[in-house]
Amino acid sequence: MKKTLSIFLTILMLLTPSVSFATQTTNTEEPKEIRNQNIYVPTKNGVQRATYEEAVKIEELNQEPLIELCDSYILGDYKSGKILESYNIDEIKSMASMSKLVSIFVVMDKIKDGTISKDDIVTIDHESAMLSGSTYKLKENEQVDVWTLVKASLIVSGNDAITALAKHISGSKEAFVVLMNDKCKELGLENAHMVNPTGLTDYSIEDYNKMTTREMFFLTRELIKEYPELLEITSMPKLEDDTRNFLEYNTNPLLGIVEGIDGLKTGYTNASGRCLVATGLRKGVEGKSLDTRLIGITTGSKNDWSRYVAAKRLLGEGFETYKYKVVGNVEKPVKTIEVEEASKDKVEVYEENTGSVLWDGKSEIKKQISIEPGLKAPIAAGEVVGTITYKMNDEQILKSDLIVKERVSERGFLFKIKNAYEDIFSNIGKVA
């Protein structure tokens, strides 16, 4: 009997479906994002294809006017300092982490005058290590060189890194802030007011770093002009340190998406909203245009996507619209002229110089040619025979001499005799 029961139980176990442990446990893994759209976007893991939801959101925001996407914006030309497009640029704004540009300006000045060196080793203090927000995840008593801290301040907006630099230079944040305000005065930024190196709101005094958007443009232009090597840092897509198990991507949302973008600094606090100072260089086409660097700033966006769409539109369309157009062509003749007693009936004249103008893609460029009267052969190669003037919007943009590139020879002796006889017979005919 026992043997029969044992056989029955064995058969029953074999016929009963097995239950997998997987069906008994809850799957805690997050669903994998499906990134398959034909546009690229910034993510915490660098530039990737957009998800469907992101693509829809961007399309919705693209229907909004720029003034609905941000509180102020400015697009300016780096070379001339000319403001090309703007909105609400003279209202004083919170700078948030964009104020690290002031801090870095001071740091670079101190490297330049020899007060500190790029290779100086900085020991991270307790206060720097305890800072929150965007950080380089520095630890107390960790030792890091100055140049690495500069990179961390710009690429990942490290509040800990810039504070450590400030204290290395001045001994305290308060003493460093004096240098920041002095720098702003030196640059003529009358509305600038700095309270700390990071740009974080100081709730103990209910104050924050601030200046106008116009002044942010001027600050950015001066910083790039004085220290262009910083663009080598701000163009880096990520900051990685295997020894510290650190990897974070550049906070600049336009980097790797808008062609030519190589800087510069993001910002965000409750007081500022999402902000961005962006710059980029669009390469010229030989003989047609020169390299053009633009600086674009947006402030006060409500979220990251609004900031991204606003800045992308401002810089992207800016590069499509504005360029340094080459005016003139020294290789191609401007026109042909007649020269008295020349061996050739027509003589080609050329521009001696070319110029360039910041062109908006629609303004008409007019030229006016003036040839000297009474030109007579011979004329030496390179001799001036006139001028050409270019104007855009009634403003002169270039005036160049016109020259002959080859010697204009005098007609030969036989030709002169022929002309003399023709003149004699012509005069006889008139008398008759």
Automatic annotation (TrEMBL):
Q: Where is the Peptidase S11 D-Ala-D-Ala carboxypeptidase A C-terminal domain?
A: 319-410
Which reaction equations make up its catalytic activity? Preferential cleavage: (Ac)2-L-Lys-D-Ala-|-D-Ala. Also transpeptidation of peptidyl-alanyl moieties that are N-acyl substituents of D-alanine
Describe which pathway this protein belongs to, using the record's wording.
Cell wall biogenesis; peptidoglycan biosynthesis
Which EC number(s) does the record attach to this protein?
Answer: 3.4.16.4
Q: Which GO terms describe its biological process?
A: cell wall organization; peptidoglycan biosynthetic process; proteolysis; regulation of cell shape
Its job: Removes C-terminal D-alanyl residues from sugar-peptide cell wall precursors.
Protein name listed in UniProt: serine-type D-Ala-D-Ala carboxypeptidase
**Organism of derivation:** Anaerosphaera aminiphila DSM 21120
